[in-house]
Specification:
The chain contains seven helices and five strands; from the N terminus they run E-H-E-H-E-H-H-E-H-E-H-H. It is of the alpha/beta class. It has one domain: Glycogen Phosphorylase B (Rossmann fold). A five-stranded parallel sheet has the order 3-2-1-4-5. Strand 1, helix 1 and strand 2 form a beta-alpha-beta unit. It is globular and about 35 Å long.
Length: 133
């Protein structure tokens, strides 16, 4: 199994959705106990994420938006992997520009075709789902 020392979890949307992804962070930390998990969230959800023990550090979307491109690339280039739990086109582009080696994002977003190098399907095929239900 590869060594992932610095993992970025990206979920920049609503507070309830952020709360629902925290168990995923626990599972990632269990699978990679020596890793450092950094959570990328919106500024208003930072206090919720801060209380969650598996998270080592927090970045906010607003910090990255305001940072000059070179500084943003430096901040993001320290990560071995990014997991886009919420597909954000701008964040996905930044992570690719920063050359994060493993960029994971849903196959259900067209822009992930050129910004992510691992694109799992998180939901069943919609046509098959509609046909069988």
């Amino acid at each position: 199994m590869p060594e992932f020392r610095n993992i970025l979890i990206s979920r920049t949307d609503a507070i309830g959705d952020v709360c629902l992804t925290l168990p995923a962070c626990q599972a990632i930390k269990s699978a990679f106990p020596d890793s450092e998990l950094t959570y990328l969230c919106s500024a208003y959800t930072k206090a919720v994420v801060f209380c969650f023990e598996p998270i080592s550090d927090i970045l906010t979307l607003e910090q990255l938006e305001q940072a000059p491109e070179g500084e943003r690339n430096t901040q993001l280039s320290k990560f071995d992997v990014v997991i886009h739990l919420f597909p954000n086109r701008m964040v996905a582009q930044w992570c690719k520009q920063a050359n994060i080696p493993m960029r994971i994002g849903t196959a259900h977003r067209f822009f992930h075709l050129w910004t992510c190098n691992f694109r799992p399907r998180f939901t069943p095929n919609a046509r098959n789902y509609m046909r069988h239900n």
